[in-house]
Amino acid sequence: MTEQLDFGWVYEMTPLATFRMVTRLEHLSEEARHLDHQQHSILELREREGLFRYVAQRQLDVDTGSRRRLFSSRPLLKQTFIWQPSNWDGSRRYDALGEISGMSVSIVGDGGVTPTGTGGTRLSISLTITASGRLAGRKMETGIAESLSQTIEAEHDFRMLALSRPGPSSF
After folding, report:
1. What is the rounded distance in angstroms from the CA atom of residue 72 to the CA atom of residue 85?
2. N or C terminus of the chain: which is more exposed, having fewer CB within 10 Å?
């Protein structure tokens, strides 16, 4: 059993500006504060040998049935995004990996930024969530998928809020 999440939004900016928006330290830190991510830390944010790596960790708020009652602390979600170099048109792809402390859950996916015409860019993400165990695994997948879906939509809302601020964009 697995849960599949697919998202895509169009922003009225170039692929480079969109890439900067989702990988810039100031924006990511402000977003984490705005979304009230607990125990948030950026572990890596750098380019090396043409690949751009973004690794962050935060507390995961998820209801997985009885698991929440068994542990007093909430699990940590470690997210890794590895962005490929940009193409001639500014498009760029990435691979995503998520690890949750204390849970046998696999989160893998990909996405990218793609020009949509004159000045617009589509940001996309696709994630597959898989947990081991028959009954508990399915409950975990559903709970994690709901939590991630809410967070991903809230991140988009924050990007729209940041873009609507008066003055020149810092991206």
Report:
1. 42
2. N
Q: Give pLDDT tens digits for 27-63.
A: 999 999 999 999 999 999 999 988 999 999 999 877 5
The CA-CA-CA angle for residues 77, 22, 127, to 5°, reads 50
* Domain, as residue range, for 23: 2-164
The one-character DSSP state at 74 is P
b/e map of 111-140 (b: 16 or more CB within 10 Å)? bbbbbeeeeebbbbbebbbbbeeeebbebb
d(CA 37, CA 34): 8
Q: What secondary structure letter does DSSP report for 159?
A: H
Q: Is residue 106 part of a domain?
A: yes
Rounded Cα distance between 25 and 109, Å, is 22
pLDDT digits (tens, 9 = 90+) for 65-92: 544 444 456 899 999 999 999 999 999 9
Write the CATH number for 27. Answer: 3.30.530.20
Phi, psi (degrees; rounded to nearest 5) at 113: -120, 135
Mean pLDDT over the full length of the chain: 89
- pTM for the predicted model, two decimal places: 0.87
Give domain status of residue 171, yes or no.
Answer: no
